[in-house]
Amino acid sequence: MIDATDSSSTRPYLIRALYEWCTDNGFTPFVAVLVDETVRVPNEYVKDGEIVLNISFDATSSLQLGNEFIEFKGRFGGVARDILVPVNRVLAIYARENGQGMAFPMLAASESTASEPHPTETKPTTLSSVSKHSEKHTTTATKPPGGTKPSLTRIK
Amino acid sequence: MIDATDSSSTRPYLIRALYEWCTDNGFTPFVAVLVDETVRVPNEYVKDGEIVLNISFDATSSLQLGNEFIEFKGRFGGVARDILVPVNRVLAIYARENGQGMAFPMLAASESTASEPHPTETKPTTLSSVSKHSEKHTTTATKPPGGTKPSLTRIK
Q: Which residue of chain A has the CA closest to B8?
């Protein structure tokens, strides 16, 4: 029996899948990120330890959705910045327009400062109904809908 | 606000993502299907209204993981058969070797005979820990692990 911890994470594959789904449907893919020292983003856009990034084709250049990192150049307040996000810091990817997408399990920011969470100890994700929200999204970095937790999602 | 029902299903995107993850990790992708008259599979391998199909590269030919249908030719008892599975009949896709993958919401077989489930009425998927199982998988069609419900999955 091969243990699940021997396999690579499904997360980057699911991120790419939801990105493709958003693009095919004309939606804007947003990624919510739990920021720590491994995440390279403009700190002034981080709120409550999190940042939401617009990773749509129009909002980025040189976007790479790799198995280990999400990388792109984005404009923040008119200034181009290099963004680097380890895939294991992604809290969720969802469509700006309706909140549909997927959330991923993550230890809370306060718990994860001491050490990286063990894959075997991550909590299973519970997908719940979409909570509608009507926040303005005028910049590449936006506030996660609903406060500190990203909008959860419904698979249909 | 665009309603979620206006968008296409994320399911085929997630199926392709997990298929790719299995393949990249050397795992065997299994698909559990809730059979009805829209599903074209060998009836003699359907048990309790479900069938589990090995959709690995080695077990199939002409595999197409489309947005509407999964199609391939598979061998059942040495005989090549054309398989057609509407994506909305897929209960789960997971790695044979460790059960990791993803389950999808579905009305029970008895409820779905009258009419197709409305996308807006589907239940959210709850992902739970992998339940280990050690069943033999010697043919293309196999019994779903753990009885009528597919093995659920953990995203890490």
A: A25
Give Cα B20 to chain centroid, integer Å: 14
Residue A78 in domain: yes
For residue A76, give its domain range. Answer: 4-110+119-142
> Which residue in chain B has the smallest CA separation from A28?
B2
CB A91 within 8 A of CB A145: no
pLDDT in tens, B61-116: 999 999 999 999 999 999 999 999 999 999 999 999 999 999 998 755 444 333 33
Q: How many CB atoms lie within 10 A of CB B61?
A: 11
ipTM over 0.85: no
* Contact between B4 and A100 using a beta-carbon 8 Å cutoff: yes
Does residue B62 lie in a domain region?
yes
Flag whether A147 is in a domain: no
Give the CA distances from residue B99 to residues A101, A141, B18, B70, B131, in Å, rounded to whole numbers and listed in that order. Answer: 23, 37, 12, 20, 7
Cβ atoms of residues A14 and A67 within 8 Å: no
Please list every residue in chain B whose beta carbon sits closer than 8 Å to the beta carbon of residue A11. 155-156
Report the CATH number at residue A16. Answer: 2.30.30.220
Distance, CA of B136 to CA of B124 (rounded, Å): 31
Once rounded to an integer, what is the mean pLDDT over residues A19-42? 97
Query: Number of folded domains in chain A?
Result: 1
Single out the residue of A84, A68, A79 nearest to residue A15, CA to CA: A68
> Considering only residues 19 to 58 of chain A, which have any Cβ-Cβ distance to chain B shorter than 8 Å?
20-21, 24-25, 27
Q: Are B5 and B120 in contact (CB under 8 A)?
A: yes
